[in-house]
Design a protein that fits this description.
Strand content: 15-25%
Distance between the termini: 55 Å
Number of helices: 20
Helix content: 40-55%
Radius of gyration: 28 Å
Structural class: alpha/beta
Mean pLDDT: 81
Length: 570
């Protein structure tokens, strides 16, 4: 026997649980699988950082136990919201109040991500600030002394953390608020940077592995950027707007807040996702106040439900409207073709140097400090120039073999920034046949292309018409520009590839059919087609396009799914 934390999927065929239910499960234990593709999410590492060293497969539900007391509030919110704020706004409001953004549709989360406003879906300082203001205001209205009211806010923060869970952003915001509230009681001057450091120390002591969590890194980077850059940036923006009078502060402060937060997280966004949001500073000007209004209206609605229908309905209408505007603004800005800029993940040091140089230059009070900031920015430019002329597909070739499960996908990166993708793994149709919902093109290949800054494929080779090889090709073709789609000659009528060919033609992609003896000449590199021959073999697998070529000092042979008859002929 053993005890500890366990990761398991909810058993198929069992009704959905309510938040806070404690389930008794049975199944087979397995070790978590680690990183399976370059730059991909390391699930095993993620679990180990949380003290989880086993997963459960073939899970079955044995029994339920009553909900834990701390989850009663969450369950009540789940039950109350759908009737008051229906539809999509209700789901988004639940995400805003409880931090359940992962339950939202992928398309909606993608809109928030592209617009640079996905942070509003996470529990953070916005929620903690409302808790502090509400509790403090209620206590002061009850004639509680100021010092006592500050002390009584602290248990409310502890209760909030226990209710929503000890996530890095929640613990960070709550710890900072607690330190800032307690500092005057100890006759100390409040320091936001000290409070941020105390929050980081508390999290690291409780769970050292959290420093590797992206949520921890993004949360502290954003707040650090605001604390270091907001004031000097607001002053710099205020100067050209001084003629606008009071409006100068109203414009400069929110713009500086958005830009400083984005500058803090930019290196992480480049390193992990290979892109940064261009519209984020604009989008957050609307998203942050709308999210604040939504959270405030949602809390007020839940607080007035026991008082009667009319006040709760009024706050619910306000919440619905503000959430709807929030979603429309995210969707509208995310739809812009220039909403995000792709930046290869290897350029993250450039983003870090730019943010550091900006901070040093804006905060400098002497000429020497300003020169130091300029030197850091110059170093960023030099680093960018070096990285532009080095790396795979520039100074040396590379072959990347993706782990797509059943099927194949190989990316050839050739000097001259030429890229050839051979197959794209299984797609949704093939995955559903096997009880899965994975699209390898969208979930594995495209994220890698994005991290590498690849926006164009010289050629996309589909070896044969089996969905575990071409299923992900449609997603790839929609995500990047493809110059040429390469297929085997002599394809049969009504081929499963017909829809892919139509998509290629609609996007201006050249469709080329090849047979043995043909050559793909790509920037001086030759890939020889050595199969199929003129007369098409009877087996679809034996119709596979087989490529042979050299990558630097190595040679490659990519065989699709050819079987023994084709192997013997080759």
């Amino acid at each position: 026997t053993a005890s500890g934390l366990l990761w398991s999927r909810w058993p198929d065929g069992s009704g959905p649980p309510n938040v806070g239910d404690v389930a008794v499960l049975g199944g087979i234990l397995a070790r978590p699988v680690g990183r399976r593709n370059p730059g991909a999410f390391d699930f095993g590492f993620y679990l180990r950082n949380r003290g989880i060293h086993a997963t459960m497969v073939r899970t079955r539900l044995l029994a339920f136990e009553p909900a834990a007391p701390r989850a009663i509030l969450s369950r009540w919110v789940y039950r109350t919201l759908p009737g008051r704020v229906p539809g999509e706004p209700g789901h988004v409001l639940r995400g805003l109040l409880l931090g359940t953004g992962r339950e939202l549709p992928d398309e909606l989360v993608e809109s928030f991500r592209r617009s640079g406003t996905v942070h509003v879906l996470a529990l953070s300082g916005l929620h903690v600030g409302f808790i502090v203001l509400i509790v403090h205001a209620v206590l002061r209205s009850l004639r509680v002394q100021r010092r006592a009211a500050r002390l009584l806010v602290l248990p409310a923060l502890v209760g909030f953390v226990l209710t929503v869970g000890a996530r890095p952003s929640v613990v960070r915001a709550s710890t900072m608020a607690a330190f800032l509230m307690a500092a005057p009681l100890l006759e100390r001057t409040p320091s936001s940077l000290n409070a941020l450091g105390a929050a980081a120390l508390a999290l690291v002591v409780a769970r050292p592995g959290c420093v590797f969590d992206l949520g921890f890194q993004l949360s502290f980077a954003a707040v650090g950027g605001i604390l270091l850059l907001h004031e000097p940036l607001a002053r710099a923006l205020r100067r050209p707007l001084v003629r606008m009078g009071p409006w100068a502060d109203r414009i400069a402060a929110p713009v500086a807040l958005s830009v400083s937060a984005h500058a803090g997280v930019a290196p992480l966004l480049v390193a992990v996702f290979g892109e940064i949001s261009v519209v984020s500073p604009i989008a957050n000007l609307a998203a942050v106040p709308l999210a604040g209004l939504s959270v405030a209206s949602g809390i007020a609605m839940l607080a007035t439900v026991p008082l009667g229908n009319w006040p709760a309905s009024a706050f619910a209408a306000c919440a619905w409207g503000s959430v709807r505007l929030l979603v429309l603004s995210a969707d509208g800005l995310a739809a812009l073709p220039w909403a995000t800029a792709r930046v290869a993940s290897r350029f993250w040091p450039v983003a870090a140097l730019c943010s550091a140089g900006l901070a040093v230059r804006l905060r400098a009070v002497s000429r020497t400090g300003r020169r130091a900031g300029l030197a850091v920015l110059t170093g960023a430019a030099v680093t960018a120039a070096v990285l532009c002329e080095t790396g795979p597909g520039i100074s040396f070739p590379r072959a990347v073999f993706f782990d797509v499960g059943q099927g194949d996908s190989i990316l050839l990166e050739l000097p001259g920034k030429q890229h050839v993708l051979v197959d794209a793994g299984p797609g949704p149709v093939c995955s559903r046949d096997k009880g899965l919902t994975r699209d390898a093109g969208r979930q594995i290949v495209l994220p890698h292309l994005k991290r590498e800054g690849i926006t164009r494929l010289t050629a996309l080779v589909v070896t044969h018409a089996h969905a575990d090889h071409f299923g992900g090709a449609a997603a790839v073709m929609r995500g990047v520009t493809v110059d040429t789609l390469v297929l085997a000659a002599g394809a049969r009528r009504e081929s499963p590839l017909d829809e892919l060919v139509e998509l290629a033609e609609s996007r201006g992609t050249i469709v080329r059919r090849v047979r043995s003896g043909d050559v793909l000449s790509i920037s001086g590199h030759l890939l020889s087609v050595i199969w199929p021959p003129g007369p098409s073999p009877a087996s679809e697998n034996d119709r596979s396009v087989v490529l042979s070529g050299r990558l630097g000092n190595s040679s490659v042979l990519l065989t699709g799914d050819v079987e023994r008859p084709a192997e013997g002929a080759l």
